[in-house]
Amino acid sequence: LQLYTGTSLFWESVALCVQNVHVHNSHWCICFCLQTELRSTGTAHHFSYPLNTSDYRILRMDEDHDRMYVGSKDHILSLDLHDINNDPHIIHWPVSERRRMECLVSGKDANEECANFIRLIEPWNRTQLYVCGTGAYNPVCTFVNRGRKPQEEIFHLEPGKIESGKGKCAYDPKLNSVSALINGELYAGVYVDFMGTDSAIFRTLGTKTAMRTDQYNSRWLNDPTFIHVHLIPDSAERNDDKLYFFFREKSSEMGQSPVTQSRIGRICLNDDGGHCCLVNKWSTFLKARLICSVPGADGMETHFDELRDVYIQPTQDTKNPVIYGVFSVSGSVFKGSAVCVYSMADIRMVFNGPFAHKEGPNYQWVAYTGKIPYPRPGTCPGGTFTPNMKSTKDYPDEVINFMRNHPVMYNAVYPVHKRPLVVRTNVDYEFTTITVDQVTAADGNYEVLFLGTDKGTVQKVIVLPRDDLQTEELVLEEVEVFKQQLFVSSVVGLTQLPLHRCDVYGEACADCCLARDPYCAWDGKSCSRYSASQKRRSRRQDVKYGNPIRQCRANKNTLEMVQYGVEGSSTFLECQARSPHAVIKWHLQRDNSDRRKEMRSDGRVLKTEQGLLLRSLQPSDSGMYQCTATEKNFKHTLVKLQLVVLSSRAVNNLLVEGGGGLVPSSLHSSSTQWTPSTGQYKDLLTILSQPEMSLINQYCQDYWQFGDPLLGAIKAKDLKELKEQKKPRNRRHHGDGEENEEQEDAET
């Protein structure tokens, strides 16, 4: 999955909530929504244009044109940000038949490899995009004309502009590559050979010297998987600007067996390489390890070593964005993933710290304690500390040689507070992608995390600060995939969905407040999208504490309903809290009793997230059932259900004998015999006609077929005849036959 906020997703599963699960001082809950519900309400918009393609990847958002550019197999798509199905612009860019046959002859797969998989879309200027694809294991690039203004509706390939994509796009569509087009130069982390063994960070295009990392030097790059690239300025001096690469790679630093480690690397934009050594190769490349771990009580740390995705959250200070990273566990000991947050101050401190150096009989990594040449390796020419050096070619040879042999920093970058923001262990999924939206609520600003998983779901998570410098994590919703929009792409499709669905939190102020969704607030009538411009008196929201007592007026009116069950069968009492963080309890007050008993799961009673299942009903199960929700010391009754257990003998006699049964006032007893009058029988039919009896009918049918061997001879037509008796008759006048029909009705 790929996630992008335009500052839309596809949900599917059953209504389910896992409550009161604590993971590393975090309280979290998962909720699912029906795919059919989202489709019927028009919430989710799946890209439905008929295309023979796959492998959708959102590669560029263009807010100036209100367009989203998507790469897929043999196609380039330009979609409306407001409605992805509204007038899509599509370019078909396949490889030639000759190239496809050459790919097949080399042993590659016809569907998964021998096609043009679009992997790079970068804005070249106001009217053109630079686009690259794998070209059936022969990377190609070209220009796309998108027009100057949105209303021009121009979107086509520029004729005669196709060029080689080597060093810009990978040969293999399964290999990750990252890119950034800055000032006419293309910077890319990519594998540049057919076999997928030569990985490099490249600079191509533009007027500057073409550059790359040192070839086949495992100290620089060791079988990396590129994740993200981002330009982050170091100071007001533009010559200090650095490009940061995020990747994971194999490393033997911790011993002889290679392990996977996550990395952050950087280069200077104005790096021209060395004069005699490292010619046309980066002379400012440095990298450091990214740590995301959970400290244990015994001092040992559980490491999440595999970086999966990175999101850069801008701040008012462009030099200090917040960096979110998604990590998973390497190896097969257990499955887990985490989200860690890093500050640029900590990252710069590591890059300004000691270099890693191997020495000693065991060739161990230690901090380099020798003399550091001037200018300090990794410093940009013409910047704050080297104003008189205009190019890296002016650097002394000892600086260049030191850089070549010491590209790794000794210290690692740890997350803020030295621990992850979100952790998942002992679950059957892992986080794979992340995007973050900053939301202004009535009580402050919050970051909402959208986390994609390897199961095709997306969790919507908010993390709240606590007084003890810890954090509390709340999973607001989980959704399954297939301007306030979230866009999700995958191999099979593309979908958009609003970041908020406030109406799902119910029709009460307390439910809206308890949901603690920063996008939503109670406006006096409904739970709706929060707007900071609304008058304060009309908004009710408390994200940090979720206290409805301070926000909402008391509402003591609870709807009371009557539900019927048949003795010996099962019935389900439905109750589900709108807030995903509430704790549900059931209490029973039996008839003729003032005491209330809490219902707990046992052999006959099963508590579920949707309600209470009672199996093998007994007359003693009759009574008033109350479903209460408790959250943040706020307790309120959601449902009151009066359960009436019908005697199985009465129902059986009614069905078998056409009239045997029990009086309504004695339906709780299974021993009293009664022959009903016509009026009493109509009362029973009225009971059986209640909407709740749709479930009872099914229970009865199951009971007749499987519950009592003595009733095995009853056929399905008995149920049909009973239903026909409840329907009004269409009387016809046919002379003498009319009297006979009326007599039959009276007998019935």
UniProtKB/TrEMBL annotation:
InterPro entries in alphabetical order: Ig-like_dom, Ig-like_dom_sf, Ig-like_fold, Ig_sub, Ig_sub2, Plexin_repeat, PSI, Semap_dom
Domain Sema: 33-499
Residue ranges of domain Ig-like in the record: 567-639
Keyword Lipid metabolism: no
Localization (cell): Membrane; Secreted
Bias type Acidic residues, positions: 738-748
Major location (coarse): membrane
KW S-adenosyl-L-methionine (keyword) present: no
Keywords: Disulfide bond, Glycoprotein, Immunoglobulin domain, Membrane, Secreted, Signal
Any one GO CC term of the record: extracellular space
Natural source organism: Mastacembelus armatus (zig-zag eel)
The protein's name in its UniProt record: Sema domain, immunoglobulin domain (Ig), short basic domain, secreted, (semaphorin) 3Fb
GO biological process, one term: semaphorin-plexin signaling pathway
PANTHER family on file: SEMAPHORIN (PTHR11036), SEMAPHORIN-3F (PTHR11036:SF27)
CDD domains per the UniProt record, alphabetical: Ig_Sema3 (cd05871)
